[in-house]
């Protein structure tokens, strides 16, 4: 099954699944780290059903929500049916459907460990940032819970923070910071009962161009 097929299949259940994985603290910290300002444009990459977008809308930003899965974006549209400030776009990590230097912020929550090439996905998110635009990524620290590949279609078993910093630098970001978000992503394996509790990092950087 492809990653797209997996997310198409879980689209209707994603909100319930996500609530069990991690808390709203992830969104609060992501938005405060970026110091988002009302009226600006933000991209939510790998938006899913709009966990990050929800906070952005509340803060008065315009949102471009990108995901590979039409089915999951359809669920997001149902949820935000009365919101006119979201532009939904189906697209892939390596070729985001957003012009160069278009957004003030790019967010990606729990997206990077699903993409084929994390460094290329980061470069592509930097491409869409305006000069001085900010990239904020929240994702899993490196872990050893192999069942997540099988059961949740994860491609990468989290990341070393040093790698994230290196990829941010190579993509041309400055003022890079990376830290623990202070909460974990938790889930139980459906076979065998193995329980995963994985640290979540928050990485941010500013576009130098
Ligand atoms: C774990 S979910 C996270 C969704 C959302 N950001 C959240 O926090 O609830 C990962 C999302 O990234 C999308 N995704 C995974 N790989 C992708 C790719 N290569 N290109 C575009 N979207 C992708 C999936 O379809 C899915 O909706």
- Portion in beta strands: 25-35%
Radius of gyration: 16 Å
Question: What is the terminal separation in angstroms?
Answer: 39 Å
What is the H-and-E element order?
HHHEHEHEEHEHHEE
In short:
This protein has 209 residues and is an alpha/beta fold.
Q: Which tags fit this structure?
A:
209 residues, alpha/beta, Rossmann fold, 8 helices, binds S-adenosylmethionine
Describe this structure in words.
The longest helix is centred in the first third of the chain and has 10 residues, at 25-34. This protein starts with a helix and ends with a strand. Helices cover 33% and strands 31% of the residues. It has a single domain (3-207), classed as Vaccinia Virus protein VP39 (Rossmann fold), CATH 3.40.50.150. It has helices at 3-10, 14-21, 25-34, 51-58, 70-79, 118-127, 147-152, 161-170, and strands spanning 41-45, 62-67, 86-90, 103-109, 129-140, 173-188, 195-207. A seven-stranded mixed sheet has the order 3-2-1-4-5-7-6. It is built from eight helices and seven strands. The protein has 209 residues and is α/β, with parallel strands linked by helices. Helix 6 (118-127) crosses helix 8 (161-170).
């Amino acid at each position: 099954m492809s990653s797209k097929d997996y997310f198409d299949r879980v689209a209707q259940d994603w909100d319930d699944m996500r609530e069990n994985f991690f808390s709203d603290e992830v969104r609060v910290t992501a938005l405060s780290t970026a110091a988002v300002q009302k009226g600006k444009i933000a991209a939510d990459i790998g938006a899913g059903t709009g966990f990050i977008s929800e906070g952005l809308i509340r803060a008065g930003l315009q949102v471009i929500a990108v995901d590979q899965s039409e089915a999951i974006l359809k669920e997001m549209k149902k949820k935000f049916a009365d919101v006119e400030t979201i532009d939904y776009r189906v697209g892939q990590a390596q070729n985001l459907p957003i012009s160069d230097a278009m957004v003030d912020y790019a967010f990606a929550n729990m997206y990077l460990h699903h993409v084929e090439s994390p460094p290329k996905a980061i470069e592509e998110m930097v491409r869409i940032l305006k000069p001085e635009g900010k990239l904020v990524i929240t994702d899993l620290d490196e872990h050893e819970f192999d069942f997540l590949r099988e059961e949740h279609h994860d491609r990468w078993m989290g990341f070393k923070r040093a790698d994230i910093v290196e990829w941010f630098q190579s993509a041309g970001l400055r003022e890079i910071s990376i830290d623990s978000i202070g909460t974990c992503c938790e889930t139980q394996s459906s076979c065998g009962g193995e329980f995963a509790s994985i640290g979540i990092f928050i990485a941010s950087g500013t576009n130098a161009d």
